[in-house]
Design a protein that fits this description.
The structure holds two protein chains of two kinds. Chain A is α+β, with helices and mostly antiparallel strands. Chain A contains four helices and three strands, in the order αβααββα. Chain A has a single domain, classed as Winged helix-like DNA-binding domain superfamily/Winged helix DNA-binding domain (Arc Repressor Mutant, subunit A). Helices cover 53% and strands 16% of the residues of chain B. Chain B is built from 25 helices and 22 strands. In chain B, the strands form three sheets. A six-stranded mixed β-barrel of chain B has the order 3-4-9-6-8-7. Chain B is globular and about 120 Å long. Classes of the chains: A alpha+beta, B alpha+beta.
């Protein structure tokens, strides 16, 4: 059976997923992608092509902060951490998202 | 802003960071045996870095370099585009800088913002006592006066010349704070005979020798000590490029001076007006015999827009410059359209390149930016070229010695306003010439099948638009040409063909009262009339078009005591004036040598009779009009002359015999009628006048030369707008030619087929001509329609009777346009006829 293509992420949801992942603690880009992949039961896979622009954008917005650190395998890696502003964004967006998904669910159920 | 610069400097580090991060990501993926992402690293990098905004700047640099490289490969295109844009921007900037220098230049004084010009009693010039009164009142920090239009005789050791002087109050330089090149301005402590020289005068006659300061020069037969020399860039208070030769701290009695006042610190214009009104009332009380000052008091800034708004005539000149700017702006637009057309043709050649870049993931905005970079480069280089050109053109125009009664010399200096305008034009032409082609080429590349029919249509629309603009510009040019023809055809009311004019400035010390001046005039007239070839000679206070004195007075008639307000041009002339000038005497007689003494007589023109005399027979009517209470009897009625401009309506005129006026001015003019061409008599006249009074400054010219000013506006307008119109036509014809040639090339096969199935030469020519005429007629019709409205406000500049919708001008425009269109289509037709059906079809 051919592996079904991972569904395209809705515009804006990637930001929410990244922020949500970072609420578990600071991590580097690859770890963020893996976390999202695992948490979504391997349904969602984040391409680096969308991940890094999103990270840079969030950093510019002040939702996350970044610093260089050493990874678990002793390599230089850039670590991202969520900021106060980021946490506020998550809670706001989470609520919006729940309402949206519920609504979509309702529509499709009828 | 700080963050922006920080980002800019952190650029390189960020770049490395991103690269390291992506490498780390890939390695991690590899170690965890996850699929290595296949994303396009370059795109990711570009997107991420775009967020930090400096990509934008980096791209511009890269785009400009790329555009520069692309252009080096097509020098023909670059040269024609640069020439169009450079000429367009250059002409625009030149007109703008002339306008700025003429209307908005700031006089060379300290703190021009606190200096104001004052009018009292509706009059711009008042008696010196009034200025002294104002100064002593303490309302203003200081008050100074100047009389700009005076002459003085300067003797260079060999000959006497009449030069232009400005006479001022003694506190002039201290009150205004005028910067000096050498020496200093005079102060109230200086003795009277001191003089300040203008730079050009000093340069020309004293070879720019600074040691002249402290030495004496001979003015009006007296030694004046030079105390200072003004810098080259000195700008007079009067503005408009007015450049006298010398400044003197003196004035003849009874002269009037323009008033300039320095405001108290913090004083507003409103406060100044209120204060002036009360001082003027006290002034009226102190000088009951003077003109009433308290009415119509005006306090106006001395420079900038505020000054323009104060004076109606200045607004007209400003409007003229604005119109010129619009017209040359339209020509620039035509040039931009030409460049756009060229860019469109280039863009079609680059279609493939753009398509490839789009498919490789370049964004449309990014490509648009790159395509615009090319026209930006063109415009910026064009503007630079134009800016240099403008300086050359403007100083050339400014150095032309206009036939004006006053010395006018504009100081053209590139300043921020002019540079700003050139920069603005560069940006505007970038957008005008680049946006459409760039957008079009993007659209074509996205939908390759759709563009085939669209592109030619766009170019055709552009050419039609070009023709539209060209028609408007041409119409303006033709209207001014018609105006010139009309105004040359209008008679000024006197003979300008066989007449000469001599202007004499007598040494005031020797000729103080009226009697010696009159004796001199009669002496001179006798000698002048004796010159072989001179038929008659006359003296006059005023020669029309060079000068005018207008009086607004109440006439009180002797018969029934009726009083009428009247406004008329005044002159005082010797008996032969009407004969010399060929002004017909309609009733009564002209003046005679008997008209002197107490029985005051006047001659009036027909308009005066019609407007003010009512039912009365002109000859014999007597009225009071001057401040003295004597009655003046009309002895003759003459035809009218124009006074100030050729297009003006006939105005009432009043002449007095020169022998009956109190002649307080040392300036006298002669007119002479010559049997031979007047130019041949100039030297003889000069010599005779020199013999009569060696101490007098003398200027002799033909009358036609000296009234050239009257024709100036229509000449300048016709010349400038005519050539601008032709430039526009040339550009439009080039545009039309390009489109037609392209269209014929595109239809080669079609034409081949037509020829093969038997179409004759006539059918083929007709086909091409119809296409061309569609463009010309479409564009021309739109242009004519618009021109009818656009040219409406021009009526201000035209002689009476010439309507802006003058049918002859419009017909001429159509004719020229048709000829231009035919010219443009000629070569494409020839090429279409030469198409060989066999070869054309073999391409299939």
């Amino acid at each position: 059976m051919a592996k079904s293509a991972s569904p395209a992420l809705l515009q804006g949801t990637l930001d929410l997923l990244i922020l949500h992942a970072l609420q578990r603690g600071e991590m580097h880009g690859y770890a963020i992608a893996q976390t999202i992949h695992v948490l979504s039961d391997e349904v969602l896979s984040v391409e680096e092509g969308s991940l890094y622009p999103a990270l840079y954008r969030l950093e510019l917005d002040g939702a996350i902060s970044a610093h260089w650190g050493v990874s678990e395998n002793n390599r230089k890696a850039k670590y991202y951490a969520i900021t106060k502003r980021g946490r506020k964004l998550v809670s706001e967006q989470q609520e919006t998202w729940s309402r949206l998904s519920l609504a979509v669910h309702r529509v499709l159920a009828r | 802003m700080r963050r922006f610069w920080l980002r800019l400097f952190r650029r390189r580090r960020l770049h490395q960071d991103l690269e390291a991060e992506l490498a780390f990501h890939r390695d991690m993926a590899g170690e965890h045996s996850n699929p290595i992402p296949l994303g396009n690293t370059s795109v990711i990098k570009e997107q991420a870095l775009d967020l930090w905004r400096f990509n934008f700047i980096e791209n511009i640099g890269r785009d400009l370099a790329y555009a520069g490289r692309a252009m080096r490969r097509s020098p023909g295109f670059v040269v024609s585009a640069l020439l169009s844009l450079g000429l367009g921007i250059g002409v625009n900037t030149a007109v703008f800088s002339l306008g700025v220098a003429f209307l908005l230049s700031e006089p060379s004084v300290t703190d021009a913002g606190s200096l104001v010009s004052i009018r009292m009693g509706g009059s711009s010039h008042v008696k010196p006592q009034a200025i002294e009164f104002l100064r002593k009142s303490g309302v203003f920090r200081d008050v100074a006066g100047e009389n700009e239009e005076t002459f003085i005789n300067w003797n260079d050791g060999v000959e006497t010349h009449r030069i232009f002087s400005v006479c001022t109050t003694k506190n002039y330089f201290t009150a205004l704070g005028v910067p000096m090149a050498y020496g200093r301005g005079w102060t109230t402590d200086d003795p009277d005979p001191v003089v300040v020289l203008r730079y050009r005068f000093w340069r020309k006659h004293y070879n720019g020798d600074p040691s002249i300061v402290g030495r004496a020069i001979n003015l009006d037969g007296r030694a004046y000590t030079v105390v200072g020399i003004l810098p080259e860039a000195h700008r007079t208070l009067m503005g408009f490029g007015f450049s006298p030769d010398v400044y003197l701290p003196r004035y003849i009695d009874d002269t009037v001076l323009a008033i300039y006042a320095r405001l108290q610190p913090g004083m507003t214009l409103g406060e100044a007006r209120a204060a002036l009104a009360t001082v003027a009332q006290r002034l009226d009380a102190s000088f009951p015999e003077h003109w009433k000052y308290a009415r119509n008091c005006v306090v106006a800034p001395i420079a900038g827009f505020a000054r323009l708004q104060q004076e109606r005539e200045l607004m007209t000149i400003g409007f003229f410059f604005a119109m010129l700017l619009v017209v040359v702006g339209l020509v620039l637009l035509i040039a931009c359209v030409n460049v756009a057309s060229l860019l469109l043709a280039r863009a079609s050649a680059r279609r493939q390149e753009i398509a490839i870049r789009l498919s490789l993931g370049a964004s449309r905005g990014r490509l648009l930016q790159q395509l615009l970079a090319e026209s930006l480069l063109l415009s910026v280089v064009g503007a630079g070229f134009g800016f240099v050109l403008a300086q050359a053109v403007a100083s050339l125009l400014a150095s032309i010695q206009l036939p004006l009664p006053l010395p006018i010399r504009l100081q053209i200096e590139p300043d921020w306003r002019v540079a700003g305008y050139a920069a603005f034009l560069a940006v505007a032409s970038t957008v005008a010439s680049g946006l459409l082609p760039a957008w079009q080429s993007l659209k074509e590349s996205i939908a390759p099948q759709l563009h085939r029919e669209r592109r030619p249509r766009l170019r055709q629309v552009l050419v039609a638009a070009q023709i539209t603009i060209c028609v408007i510009v041409l119409t303006t040019g033709f209207l001014f040409l018609r105006n010139l023809l009309r105004s040359t055809a209008i008679s000024p009311g006197f003979d300008v063909v066989r007449t000469l004019r001599a202007e004499v400035y007598l040494p005031p010390a020797k000729y103080q009262s009226s009697a010696p001046k009159l004796a001199y005039a009669e002496d001179a007239l006798r000698s002048l009339a004796a010159i072989p070839g001179i038929e008659s000679a006359a003296a006059a206070r005023i020669i029309p078009f060079t000068d005018a004195t207008r009086f607004g007075m109440d006439l009180t008639f002797a018969d029934n005591g009726e009083m009428r307000p009247a406004l008329f041009h005044w002159n005082a002339v010797s008996p032969d004036y009407f004969r010399v000038m060929d002004i017909p005497v309609l009733a009564g007689r002209s003046f005679s040598s008997e008209d002197r003494g107490e029985a005051k007589v006047v001659i009036v023109n027909r308009t005066f009779v019609e407007q003010y005399l009512g039912h009365r027979q002109p000859v014999g009517t007597a009225f009071q009009w001057a401040e003295d209470k004597t009655f003046y009897r009309i002895v003759g009625e003459v035809a009218g002359t124009k006074n100030l401009s050729i297009g003006e309506e006939d105005r009432p005129q009043l002449y007095q015999p020169l022998a009956q006026i109190r002649n307080d001015r040392p300036r006298l003019q002669f007119v002479l009628r010559s049997a031979t061409p007047p130019a041949t008599q100039l030297a003889a006249v000069r010599q005779v006048l020199r013999q009569v009074e060696p101490g007098a400054g003398i200027e002799v010219s033909t009358l036609y030369q000296s009234i050239g000013l009257a024709f100036l506006p229509s000449q300048v307008g016709a010349l400038l707008l005519g050539s601008v119109g032709l430039l526009g036509l040339l550009l439009a014809v080039i545009g039309l030619y390009g489109v037609m040639s392209y269209s014929v090339a595109r239809r080669t096969r079609e034409i081949g087929v037509r020829v093969a199935i038997g179409a004759g030469r006539w059918e083929i020519s007709r086909m091409v001509l119809i296409e061309a005429s569609r463009l010309v007629i479409g564009g021309g019709a739109a242009g004519l329609f618009l021109a009818v409205f656009v040219t409406r406000p021009l009526a201000t500049f035209f002689v009476a009777g010439l309507s802006p919708s003058d049918p002859a001008s419009f017909a001429a425009v159509l004719l020229v346009l048709a000829a231009g269109g035919l010219l443009a289509a000629l070569d494409p037709v020839r090429r279409a006829l030469r198409i060989d059906p066999v070869r054309a079809l073999r391409y299939e």
